[in-house]
Amino acid sequence: MATYVVTHEVEDVEHWLASPKREEFFGPHGITAQPFRDPAGSNRVALVVEIPDLAVFQELMQSQGAADAMKHDGVRPETMLMLVGK
């Protein structure tokens, strides 16, 4: 299992935090995501993501389902940055 930190901007932080879409989308694939917010109040957020199979994750992120979930959650995909743990 690999651990990643994913950062991105969202339209509405409260909506993003409350949304069940992450669990609905990632959960069936064994992927977990713990959300974080900027304490200074910006629209930048982060996830600590546990990914059992990176190939599956990469395929999922290219799917229409991922695009739909990000749109629902107000994610700005062009701001996404993914960092891998060592």
Please give the structural blueprint.
Blueprint: E1 2-10, H1 13-18, H2 21-26, E2 32-37, E3 44-51, H3 54-61, H4 64-73, E4 75-84
Antiparallel strand pairs: 1-3, 1-4, 2-3
Describe this structure in words.
With 86 residues, the protein is of the alpha+beta class. The chain has helices at residues 13-18, 21-26, 54-61, 64-73, and strands at residues 2-10, 32-37, 44-51, 75-84. A four-stranded antiparallel beta sheet has the order 2-3-1-4. A hairpin with a 6-residue loop joins strand 2 (32-37) and strand 3 (44-51). The chain is globular, with a radius of gyration of 12 Å. The relative contact order is 0.33. The mean pLDDT is 96.
Structural class estimated from helices and strands: alpha+beta
The stretches of 5 or more residues where confidence is low (pLDDT under 50) are none
H and E order: EHHEEHHE
Number of helices: 4
What is the strand arrangement across the widest sheet?
2-3-1-4
Sheet having the most strands: 4 strands, antiparallel
How would you describe the shape? globular
* Percent in helix: 25-40%
Over all CA atoms, what is the radius of gyration?
12 Å
State the distance separating the first and last CA atoms.
12 Å
Beta-strand share of residues = 35-45%
Structure in a nutshell:
The protein is α+β, with helices and mostly antiparallel strands.
State the main characteristics.
86 residues, alpha+beta, four-stranded antiparallel β-sheet, 4 helices, globular
